[in-house]
Amino acid sequence: MTVLRSRSLDAQGRQAGFDRRLWLISSAALTWGLASTLPQLLLGDALAVLVVLVTAAFGVVGGLLIFDENTASAGRAMLAACVLAPLNTGVGWDVGPVPFVLGITEGVFWVALCQGILTFQRSPLQWPERVFLGAMWTSFIGGQLTWSIVSRPEWVGLPPDTWWPALVPDLDASTAVQGILGLLNVASAIVFCVLIGWRASALARLDHRHSSPVAIAAAVSAIGAAVAWTITGRVTVIDQALLLGVPLAFAVSVLRARLLRAELGTALAGLAHGAGPDAVEALLQELLRDDTTTVYFWVTERSLYVGRDGRPVDSANEGAGRMRLPVATSDGEPVAVVTTDAALRSQRQYLETVVSAVRPTLENARLQATVRAQLAALRDAQARVLDVGLLERRRMERDLHDGAQQRLLSVASSIGLAGVQDDGTERRATLDRAGGDLRVALRELRDLAHGLHPIVLTRDGLSPAIDDVVSRLPLEARLDIDTVRVDPAAEATAYFVICEALTNVAKHAGALRVTVDAHFDGNRLTLEVTDDGVGGADATGYGLQGLVDRVETIGGHVELTSPPMRGTRLTAHIPCR
Question: Are residues 204 and 109 in the same domain?
């Protein structure tokens, strides 16, 4: 409770500091707007009033954005626009060199505003946008200088004594340059709208929610200002009214972002206690406005990730090219990985807030995903065991047909032949051959029966049965096997697991020594087969996969450690009834 109260006080302190800074910035913006338009305000000029409102609005919005790391760049641009907005219009300051200087600052204002709008869409500027902004600098500043060289102040409605370069004044040239600048302004506005649309096409739905009001207001203002300047050659009430819509649109976007965070709390409150993987994934898709958002849950026992259906997945490959948000417990244990549209990288702070808020729900859902993974693994193992059983029955049929059956047919043929032979010596030789074939057939049948279920395992238990197997291995073996008897199913599973492991060691490991340990702890039998071979064993290979399936079918699990050139350790945990 003390920690929660401390966090609450810290949050209140941060909010109070933010409010103070915002109040100072807003007051400064309003003061600057009033001071810069004071001469015309005293005359009741409507344009001056609009300029004050635009200046104050840009200041407020800049203050809202600059303290958020995601929108700090746009916030700086908005504060620059706040400073330049009155200079852009030059209302009430038609004296000395001021009109000429303010004509230059007009271009700076529009470049700063366009850059702020583009960066607000939360991704770095691409080369087309950088080229566009560079062209704007050249067009606005170079064009203004060229125009001032070939024109006089009285030709644009300024007092004749206004300082103006007018190096080579020419009315026709001035009119032509002004017309070209007007066309360039319209072209710049059109290109700006195209860039906004191009950026919007690459944004995630969540970003569209924030940036669409700004994009619409910016496009309308840019086109309106360009057309108005082309027609009148000066700032008008109409384009300032349209310009006021830009900071207001920014304010709407900020409000939407705050409402989105409030929506997060409402959605979490409506989430049922103990919600499963499906409900959690659907909630994240709704909050992130991304139907492709996927959650992969960590299964500790198997050291892998599974989907909401419990099926194992390679989260690294599944999330390739997408944004990945790992989720862990307070102790650092993996819980899940959330993958979503890469376009949402610009909203990382919000995404981390969402994932942090749903972490307890994800931890509960992981338990259900783990159960689903166990059931899915059990179903898969049972299916593979059935397949292996079918193959084994076919192998037995083939072995009986090619081995014992042929021997018995040979015995029958020999006995029949002996019955018609008159010579006693030949009859005796024929019967001896029949006896030899019969003994071979019996041995083959015993070997076949031993592979199904060795009699020594049933009669004496696991330790003597493994002793019998090891005695036929061409390598040194050490056994440490408890003599306690366990239930037949667990004992048979342990026997076949050890036999399969030893067969793999003998065939593939190139080992000199192998160790077999088997210990019973009251409710499960733990087996460990270790060799000093070449390592590099693959748990998905046919032999080892069958071994894993056999263990998982009765509710156990297998662990394999096999680094290259460092031997192999196979551990199986088998539940006992």
Answer: yes
